[in-house]
Amino acid sequence: MTFLVFVGSEGVDDVAEEDLGGYSLKEDVEVVIGEGDSLLSELFDRIFMAMKEGERAYIKTKVDAKCRKVDDSLPGLKSTLKFNVLLKSFNRAADIGELEPDEKLERAEHHKEKGTSIYQQNNIDFGLRRFRKALEYLNSISSVDGFSNAMVSRMNTLKCHCNLNLAAGHLKQEEFEKVIDYCMVALTLEPNNVKGLFRRAQAHAKLHQYDEAKKDLLRARELDAENKSIVSLLKNIELSMKKERQMYQKMFSH
Length: 254
Description:
Blueprint: E1 2-10, E2 28-32, H1 39-50, E3 56-60, E4 82-91, H2 101-120, H3 124-139, H4 149-172, H5 176-189, H6 194-206, H7 210-223, H8 228-252
Antiparallel strand pairs: 1-2, 1-4, 3-4
């Protein structure tokens, strides 16, 4: 949905523009639900979806001027943000099920590009949301009838990249089982994808699944023998495996 809104504020002049997620203060602004990538824009979106045209609302948040969640039970807290909003009008956009396959592909590409941009700004959580949204559009394409070979290739490449990006984000968040799952999907699409093999090996290594990690790294090294990161991790894995064998030998030698 597209909303035309007016957002007034109380004492939030220090809020960075990117933290408002596409909303502007003290002026009419047209926004598309889901196109903000911050805690504030997420809050606004939920509220506007529940409002009627012409309705006003007073919003008291639990985030500070740097858009960090705060504990409103703390005594003397005065840094939470407050807004007065007016929903002037809204237009309904097509739901995912109403879109043609090529439109779904275009929207998926849009979300992937936005996700990449904000991920590079270290906005990990919202970057991952964008990649998942892109996959939602891609996975809803039930038929590629009418797609050229180039479009099918474009769709599969996009699926692979979104899964690899999700794997990278969950690797940073130390959610290693998810990393493996996303890499599995990416490698189903592109079995020789070096990034997929390497990231899955990293996750296996963190879970002490050294045999699986080594297998992925040996395959990755075949594909990219000059990659220093692969060579380095492979050495570390082999060292860890050696130490593990020595530990078990000591345990059972008595």
